[in-house]
User: Fold this.
Amino acid sequence: MTLEVAIVHQLAGFSLNVTFQAKAGITAIFGRSGSGKTTVINAIAGLLRPDAGRITLDGDILVDSTTFVPPSARNLGYVFQDARLFPHLTVHDNLNFGTRYAPVNASGPKFDDVVDLLGLEALLDRRPAKLSGGEKQRVALGRALLSKPRMLLMDEPLASLDDPRKQDILPYLERLRDGPLQLPILYVSHAVDEVARLADTLVLLRDGSVARAGPIREVMSDPAAVPLLGVREAGAVIEATIMHHAADGLTCLRIDVGELHLPGVEADVGAKVRLRVLAQDVMLSLNTPQGLSALNVLPVVVDRIQRGDGPGAAVSLRAGKDLLLARITARAVAELGLVIGMPCFAVIKATSVAPVSIGR
Amino acid sequence: MIPDTAAWEALRLSLWVSVWATVLAVPLALWVAWLLARHDFWGKSLLSALVHLPLVLPPVVTGYLLLGAFGRNAPLGRALDSLGLGLAFHWSGAVLAAVIMGFPLMVRAMRLAIEAVDPKLEEAAATLGAPGWSVFGRVTLPLIAPGILAGAVMGFAKAMGEFGATITFVANIPGQTQTLPSAIWTALQIPGGEHQASIMVILACVVAISAVVISETLARRVAARIADQ
Assistant:
């Protein structure tokens, strides 16, 4: 599966010029509000015809200068931020709305599978007015899945939900990503934590153009991406394997260059989890630190250094195969004499790392 | 208080004219309401003004204009007459008068209903694979059904009560163009006709109240289906 997007579009006081590719897995489009995310996803869905450019899916032209495939013929599932369930239909009928239009030979989940996957059994006879926000989004997701789409488009599907509801839905999205469906997903978001947890590929939008794009591990640990993600939100994504759970509540995880000890990771021994290590929670030391409360000290090599606009600097670090990102002051960079290729130690406070994804 | 044959005849004609007027006007009003609610085109405000004109013109003037257009001496009227479709002094003329007089009320109710439908729901239906007509039939139509119903009832009631334009256009011929309001008016012109008139007034009230009750019941059912009270 390859989605290729290269479009130009003029909006009131704003011009969009975006080129990127999305392959299998979850591709996240991240940007602040007004960066053009929704315009891009609407152009892919066919709800908006771009002024120029082209969008293809596995070589099939969805739109170019002469062709415009209407949304009803694109066979893409769209999950909107505001669910958009049909108020006059029950959950059952909402779910089945698109099944009759699905291509006859398309593979896709069965009704009962979707109801199971999303836990909708108890809701089937209800109407949308009687559903909570999280329930609505689950129905909207199921409705899109049952139209047997070639790809799923999601426009901030969690933005209107509070935190507990988000935590309800994220596991379902992970099951879609990792489960037997293997459905490619384009996920628009302005929440770094969602993106870090879900995405395989990350496209960063700024003012209507692509500022950075690539595998999530590379983009999240790119010092140049720090201003785009926000200094407090920036941080590397690394994968770790659960080694054992200690009696004092800490979990030991294996990464390429050593072990991490983190509190409260709920996963089975042997499971792979994704960790998001915020750049502001990583300290650097030239020597093996002594007499420090931080448990996690990793040998790393300085990979890149990027000065910020203010007194800060972002330093990317190579820890074996993994990449880390540290945000320290420019003065510290100077005093430590940090240069590219220099070995040093990254110090990570155990309580500052939260596992963002489980079961990969 | 037993209605005589003339009263029953007037009631039968009124119901006949009103049902025809409603059946003919609903699809047309829906189409015009759709144009006004969903489309921008040259002459939109002109169309809107034209549709609403019968609401503000004296009904007699509307009847006079119809007579001018479809009367036996007008070219259009003559052409229709030669085809055997003459409207003047015929019950079908009463239907035309009722359609035109009720049209603004119907369009208004339906336009409000269409404007209340969120186009985002129709977009969602399209992304699920539904082609245009299917989106209309499965999403838009069920959502505007109460508005269509309300418009139809308004139009029917207006047709039942239409007097000025009808009597001017098609006159007051018993059994042919004498609707219930015309018959009431005629009875009141005859000394001692008050008794006859009051019987027909009661008939008119019964029909009007029944129409409202039936439409309310239907509207409640439709609304319940939509909002799940």
